[in-house]
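Following up on my earlier thread - several people asked me to post the actual chain instead of describing it. Fair enough. Here it is, all 138 residues.
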Amino acid sequence: MFKCPNCNELISEKMIACPFCRHEISSAERLQAEKDIRDEEEKENREMLIKIQAAARARKICIACMVIYMILYIIVAGFLGLMGLNYAFAMVCIVGVILFAAINAFIIFFTKIFACPHCGRFLYRNYGPYCHRCGGPL
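Reply from S.P.:
Thanks for posting it. Predicted structure:
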């Protein structure tokens, strides 16, 4: 299928003339339409790749921030415990870090399993073989 150069209606590649406006399709127009379709598909693929790369970078940044936060939290809790200021507070901090890590690991794991491989977005409800956001196959 491609668009008629005269009326922009979708027509079959096998048509000699547009059934809507009766414009005769020359071979040069047909080749140009096919090239335009290929260019549009390549543009969509590039945009999708950019979105996938951005989602991957965002995940990496999220994981790095989580690791830095946990390390700082453990250092603060360790100093408080070593200094003998408040042993109970240090233990609460360490338990908090462990719970925080477990919850974040579950969230990252859960969103990665149920994410579209093309756009990287989370699939809340998907009733079919295609992503409901980008239309890519699952």
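The chain has one domain: 2-113. That should answer part of your original question.
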